[in-house]
Amino acid sequence: MYEISPQGWLIDAQSNRIWLETRTTHYDKVVPSGSYYMKVRTEGVAKESYATGDINIIPFVTNYVDITFE
Q: Which residues, 6 or more positions from 56, have their beta carbon under 8 angstroms from its beta carbon?
């Protein structure tokens, strides 16, 4: 995930990238509130798939992001 600045630019610094790598079904990651651009790819399946998109993390609530490839 890449943070999106208030001006709409991607903040593409090595220290600002958030990696969401997991192989389990339940995985919690704490991130600051704000707007993010996400690039996702499948691994270990017959056909590799890719997805991109924007998400908004709202402060002071629990935000759930569920990404499902079919």
A: 34, 35, 36
The torsion of the CA quartet 64, 50, 2, 62, rounded to 10 degrees, works out to: 0
In the 8-state DSSP scheme, what is residue 29? -
Amino acid in the structure at residue 10: L
Q: What is the pTM of this model?
A: 0.69
Write out pLDDT tens, residues 15-45.
667 766 655 566 677 788 899 888 888 877 7
Residue 3 CB neighbour total at 10 angstroms: 19
Query: Comparing C-alpha atoms, which of 66, 24, 68, 12 is closest to residue 42?
Result: 68
- Residue 12 is given by DSSP the state -
Q: Return the structure tokens found at 28.
A: 């919690």
